[in-house]
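re: the backbone from monday

yeah here it is again, tokenized this time
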């Protein structure tokens, strides 16, 4: 079934602890870490993740949009993240990094920017717990969903099925009630939603509405029926 991960990039940074608890029922809290080098934006780092991990029972899903994740990613596990995503475009040794993240006790995830194809990384998939397909260019929230990513999501799901992997497939960028069903039909089962949740009058209800739409689509999706 679907997992809904609200992104605190769209939350009120002055009230992060409250915003974390406002999304009751979420599976994970998605934390966007940006360094103003890999992407042209600067957000937060290890100290905020440490504080958030103490402020919420919801596990933290840290998405590192940073240079040199080989050096920094393990620190986010130590800070309390339950899942750590690094960008393959930035990693020097993605297999070694994924293994280190797992060895420290977190789920290892790898992200691909829109222009990065999945096929060259097919052999890496067994080393991962989740793969993230960006459906916008990383760096800023509130962007429009890129429909041209749907075939890539389908191809990724086919590779996961081909190898018989229990690998979560996450999408991030422009996910809303109007786009989540297309993502789910294509093969995604983990959905990051920022403004669609925190821009709503009732963030917890927005999470429930997104889950209902995604679950309904997954239940009848060809990829899920063959799983």
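seq for it, each position gets an aa:
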């Amino acid at each position: 079934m679907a997992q809904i991960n609200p992104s605190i990039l769209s939350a009120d940074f002055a009230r992060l602890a409250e915003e974390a608890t406002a999304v009751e029922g979420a599976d994970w809290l998605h934390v966007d870490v940006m360094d103003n080098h890999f992407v042209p934006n600067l957000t937060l780092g290890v100290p905020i993740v440490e504080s958030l991990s103490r402020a919420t029972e919801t596990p933290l899903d840290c998405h590192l949009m940073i240079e040199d994740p080989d050096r920094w990613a393990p620190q986010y596990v130590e800070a309390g993240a339950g899942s750590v995503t690094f960008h393959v475009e930035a990693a020097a040794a993605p297999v070694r990094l994924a293994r280190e993240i797992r060895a420290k006790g977190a789920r290892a995830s790898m992200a691909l920017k829109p222009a990065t194809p999945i096929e060259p990384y097919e052999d890496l998939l067994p080393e991962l717990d989740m793969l993230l397909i960006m459906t916008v260019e990383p760096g800023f929230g509130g962007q429009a969903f890129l429909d041209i990513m749907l075939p890539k999501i389908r191809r990724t799901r086919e590779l996961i099925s081909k190898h018989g992997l229990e690998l979560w497939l996450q999408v991030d960028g422009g996910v809303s009630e109007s786009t989540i069903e297309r993502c789910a039909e294509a093969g995604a089962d983990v959905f990051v939603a920022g403004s669609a949740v925190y821009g709503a009058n009732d963030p917890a209800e927005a999470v429930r509405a997104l889950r209902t739409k995604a679950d309904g689509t997954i239940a009848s999706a060809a990829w899920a029926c063959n799983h």
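The longest helix spans residues 203-220. The chain has a mean pLDDT of 96.
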